[in-house]
Amino acid sequence: MPIWKRWLKYGRTYLDTALRRGNEELDVREAELEARAAERPWMKSSGDVPTVDEVRARIENDAAASAAPAGDGEEAGLAFDRAEEQRRADERLERIRRELGLGGDREQ
Length: 108
Known about the structure:
By secondary structure, this protein is an all-alpha fold. Helices cover 73% and strands 0% of the residues.
């Protein structure tokens, strides 16, 4: 077998291996994006402006992600800080609702 055929076969094998690895990596990344999109429905939005349901889902997801069980010491301080942040966020949300006329003062 001439040497150029050997190099051609080597090049083809190397290229096939690189393409296969690239496709596998792309499949993994696409699966990760799909999993992330399943957790976050607002990422699937195709419009320029999010809908009320998409905004609500995002707010609820962010609130759930930031909520942590209270623990001892530093963890308890972090939980308190998060609770304070949540209270402030709720106040801002109520103020925005009142300004937009969307029934700001919710009954609790």
